[in-house]
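In this section we walk through a basic example: taking a raw amino acid sequence and producing a predicted 3D structure, encoded as discrete structure tokens. The instruction is simple. Fold the sequence below.
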Amino acid sequence: MFDQFILGYEGRLWKMVRDAGQIVWVHCHGKVRTVIDDFVQGGVQLLDPVEPPPQGDIDVGEAKQRAVAGPMTLIGNIEFSDLCQLSADEIEARVERAVCEGGRQHFILGASDFPISAIDDRLKENLICFIEAGIKYGTSDDGDL
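The resulting token sequence is shown next.
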């Protein structure tokens, strides 16, 4: 059904957007392993979010290798549910992994969602950790990441 409904209809819209000199940005949650090459071939230039397993089914390193043909920029790889539930140390480790696997080009660190209601103390601490770890690992001079 992906070929029929997404590529068949949205594919035409993507071409119109590209022909107008604009960026084709697709918002797609969940499991994208089987369709990421179709997004690349369809001319998608930005895919948001690329979710890590188990919500998604592809790690950012593999997604990046497959997206480079586009080139397609990826946004992700932190789950909002993790920001709500994990410790700050676990968030920092996930951010470090995402940034190191995503690299400096064609990757934007992002969460799968952000809060639309009250923020408790854990989420507040983890959002701050997420931002600070993104700055820490995203501006590192340690090689190519």
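Looking at the output, two observations stand out. The helical segments are 2-19, 36-41, 60-67, 80-85, 88-102, 121-138. The two ends are 37 Å apart (CA to CA). In the next section we compare this with other chains.
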